[in-house]
Specification:
The chain is of the alpha+beta class. It is built from 7 helices and 4 strands. It binds uridine-5'-diphosphate and magnesium ion.
Length: 133
């Protein structure tokens, strides 16, 4: 079994899309084994996105993910990391395929609704950040 971190970002919560997004994850056969709603502090957001700290979009990204509560979950399954990345689609919703979460609901390359870990190593690090227990 592989684990990955999945996060519904503030726009997904504000737009009342939690249920539809979670339904897609469950329909894809992934098991949700932990789930919490929380507000990310700026420090936590900075740690989560530390790989992007030199990018031009970094400060705007931190503003966005700290703009309201998020829903974080641990998803498990064989190949969960790649399965969830496929389910969310490309970073830019304009390039994400129909039937993907970002392709169907995302607004722009910043406001793309969801996060999913990009490797098992990222997943371990990110799960520890969101679920320290
Ligand atoms: N992002 C952005 N502008 C960009 C690229 C990314 O605002 O040009 C934001 C977007 O919210 C994205 C996050 O930064 O989800 C992390 O970027 P990454 O390249 O890791 O994309 P992801 O792994 O989320 O698909
Ligand atoms: Mg990423």
């Amino acid at each position: 079994m592989e684990r990955t971190l999945f996060v519904i970002k503030p726009d997904g919560v504000q737009r009342r899309l939690i249920g539809q997004i979670v339904a897609r994850v469950e329909k894809a056969g992934l098991a949700i084994t932990a789930l919490r709603m929380m507000s990310m502090s700026r420090d936590m957001a900075a740690r989560h996105y530390e790989a992007h700290k030199d990018k031009p979009f970094y400060e705007g990204l931190l503003d966005y993910v700290t703009s309201g509560p998020v829903v974080a979950m641990v998803c498990e399954g064989a190949g969960a990391v790649n399965d969830l990345r496929a389910l969310i689609g490309a970073t830019d919703p304009a390039k994400a395929g129909a039937g993907t979460i970002r392709g169907d609901f995302g607004v722009d390359v910043t406001h793309n609704l969801v996060h999913a870990s990009d490797s098992p190593e990222s997943a371990s690090r990110e799960i520890a950040l969101f679920f320290p227990d």
